[in-house]
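User: I've been trying to design a sequence by hand for this structure and keep getting stuck. Would you show me what you'd pick, starting by listing the structure so we're on the same page?

Assistant: Good idea, let's start from the same input. This is the structure you sent:
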């Protein structure tokens, strides 16, 4: 009788454990597919590709991106789906882009220089017409510094960026705004934007041949 009861208890425990394991595996698989929709590939694949190409640890990669090792581990294992900080996403995309231009086996000095460059990158809101009040976008401070929207345009089509913005709009409005800016077609050089209208009798875009 004891053996029968023990066997029954063991069977129930095994079934519960199996159900929990199966539920976790299903959730992880769903999270990976969600990451594929948002970022073009599961973040674990991107992280492994970067650590292999640069021959660095995941902790070293996390430091360059501006994340804690624990947070990057959660993202890479799909226990967490979304990158909440637009600057981190932009650094990840920039590093991915730069890695493609590296030789097959880059030297340690070149790798450290690249990681230091990515870690030092500072991203600013850009694109779109200025709007009144605290919602006014910020212009880039340093010349020739790519924005987060610029980096996003190099890895995804406008339609995918717009779809990602719609999906993230409620939970992560700041990230969705960057995605919307990236999805919009960049304004042609020399073409005045909506902010060039006269304000208080002074044009924000001087006519040709004149100076402020």
């Amino acid at each position: 009788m004891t053996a029968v009861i023990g066997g029954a208890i063991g069977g129930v425990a095994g079934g519960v454990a199996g159900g929990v394991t199966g539920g976790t595996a299903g959730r992880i698989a769903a999270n990976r597919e969600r990451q594929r929709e948002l970022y073009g590939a599961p973040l674990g694949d991107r992280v492994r590709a970067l650590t292999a190409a640069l021959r660095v640890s995941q902790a070293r990669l996390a430091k360059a991106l501006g994340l804690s090792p624990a947070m990057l581990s959660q993202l890479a294992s799909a226990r967490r789906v979304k990158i909440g900080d637009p600057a981190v996403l932009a650094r990840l995309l920039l590093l991915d882009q730069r890695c493609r231009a590296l030789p097959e086996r880059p030297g340690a000095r070149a790798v450290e220089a690249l990681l230091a460059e990515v870690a030092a990158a500072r991203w600013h809101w850009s694109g779109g017409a200025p709007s009144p009040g605290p919602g006014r976008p910020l212009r880039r401070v340093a010349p020739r510094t790519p924005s987060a929207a610029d980096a996003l345009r190099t890895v995804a089509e406008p339609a995918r960026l717009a779809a990602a913005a719609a999906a993230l709009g409620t939970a992560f409005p700041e990230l969705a705004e960057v995605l919307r800016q990236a999805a919009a077609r960049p304004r042609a050089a020399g073409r005045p934007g909506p902010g060039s209208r006269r304000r208080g009798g002074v044009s924000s875009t001087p006519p040709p041949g004149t100076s402020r």
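That's my pick for every position. To get oriented when you compare it with your attempt: Residues 10-123 form one domain. The radius of gyration is 24 Å.
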